[in-house]
Structure formats: C-alpha cells, structure tokens
C-alpha cells in the first residue's frame, strides 16, 4: 500500500512539474508577444501618416513650412527653391510636411514634376549612385550634401494602395519623388539618398 502511495505521489509531482513548465513557457511567450507588439507600435509611431506621393494637395501645410531653402542637383542642372506650400510652382520642389526637415534624422521627402512647372525632375532617372544632391538651409545657414544610394529600384506602381510613409528617426535620408512614366501618374518614382556631410554657409 505504501508502495502505491509513493508511486502516486511521484506521478502527481511529475504532472505538477509538467504543468508548471507549460505555464512558464506560456508566460515567456506572452512576454515576447507583448514586447513585439510594443516594438511594432513604436515603429508605426516613428513613421508619418500615409501620404499619396503624387497628390499631396490634400495634405495639411505645417506651421514651419520650408520656404526659400534651395535644392541643387549638379548633374541635372537643378537649382531651385523648396517649399511646403504647393507642388505646382515654377522652379520649386515641394517638401512633404509629413517628412522631416533636411538634415534631420529620418526621411526628408521632396517632390517635383517631370514634364510641367519647370520639369525639374525630367531626367531624375539618369542619376547614378554617388551623385550629389545638395540642400541649402538659408535660415539655419547650413548646407546638407546627400549622395544617391539607389535610383530606379523603387518604382511604386501600387502607391495608391500603399501610400508612402516617411520615417521620423534613424539615418538622415532624402527621397526624391516624381511621377512615372513622365507626364503620367501610373507610378511613383523614388530616388533614395543619404546624408553625407553638413557644413556652414
């Protein structure tokens, strides 16, 4: 009788140990899920609200609109003003208010036309990796030099279903956006650049 009681206690102890192990594993997994959800939320919060890259007219203009900053793309012969007011202006590139300011961590977005309003980005597709893109901040007396990191690899045919979202943190980057093919809004052409240097002017 004592022998059976000992066996019973061993079996009960073994079952209790298994139950405890299962509960502990479940707890650890729930902690990992909670951590992943928190990281996802932080990542989503670090990006702007979705933006139609080729039709920003409905976007609200920020109180600190970038006006009279200067965009220079030596290879394209571009030397124009940057403004967050409208994309439909001559010799002007549009700064997405949802994106960060030039030189800041995250993604700064600039949009311009390929066939109308000075057609500043007419030959945007000819930029090569390493080509320079310069932004002069005349208010802060700073000059930001970016270099092209990719061009032609990011053509967003589904930009209406998956609007662009600008990162608000991380490496300082610049996105040059235009329509594709030239004169049509079938896709968004995005040229990627990264900040190479900052200097005083």
Shape: elongated
CATH homologous superfamily identity of the largest domain? Sortase
Low-confidence stretches: 36-46, 58-64
Mean model confidence by pLDDT: 83
CATH architecture assignment of the largest domain: Beta Barrel
Number of separate strands: 8
Helix/strand-derived category reads alpha+beta
Q: Count the domains.
A: 2
| Top-tier CATH class of the largest domain | Mainly Beta
Distance between the termini: 95 Å
Estimated helix fraction: 10-25%
Major sheet details: 8 strands, mixed, barrel
List the strand order in the largest sheet: 1-2-3-4-7-8-6-5
* Computed CA radius of gyration, to the nearest angstrom: 26 Å
Order of helices and strands: HEEEEEEEE
**CATH overall fold name of the largest domain:** Sortase, Chain: A
Percent of sequence in beta strands:
25-35%
Number of helices: 1
How would you characterize this protein structure?
The chain is of the alpha+beta class and 201 residues long. It folds into two domains: 1-45; 56-200, Sortase (Sortase, Chain: A), CATH 2.40.260.10. It contains one helix and eight strands, in the order αββββββββ. The chain has an eight-stranded mixed beta barrel with strand order 1-2-3-4-7-8-6-5. A hairpin with a 4-residue loop joins β1 and β2 (78-83).
What's a concise summary of this model?
The chain has 1 helix and 8 strands; from the N terminus they run αββββββββ.
């Amino acid at each position: 009788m004592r022998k059976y009681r000992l066996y019973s206690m061993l079996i009960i102890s073994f079952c209790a140990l298994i139950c405890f192990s299962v509960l502990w594993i479940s707890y650890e997994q729930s902690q990992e899920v909670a951590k992943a959800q928190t990281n996802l939320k932080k990542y989503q919060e670090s990006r702007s609200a979705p933006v139609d890259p080729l039709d920003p007219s409905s976007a609200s203009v920020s109180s600190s609109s970038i006006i009279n900053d200067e965009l220079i793309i030596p290879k394209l012969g571009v030397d124009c003003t940057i403004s967050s007011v409208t994309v439909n202006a001559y010799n002007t590139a549009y700064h997405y208010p949802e994106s960060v300011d030039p030189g800041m961590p995250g993604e700064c977005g600039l949009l311009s036309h390929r066939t109308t309003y000075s057609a500043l980005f007419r030959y945007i597709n000819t930029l090569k990796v390493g080509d320079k893109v310069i932004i002069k901040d005349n208010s802060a007396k700073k000059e930001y030099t970016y270099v092209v990191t990719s061009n032609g690899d990011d053509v967003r045919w589904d930009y209406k279903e998956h609007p662009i979202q600008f990162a608000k943190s991380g490496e300082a980057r610049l996105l040059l956006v235009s329509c594709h093919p030239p004169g049509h809004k079938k896709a968004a052409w995005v040229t990627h650049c990264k900040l190479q240097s900052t200097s005083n002017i």
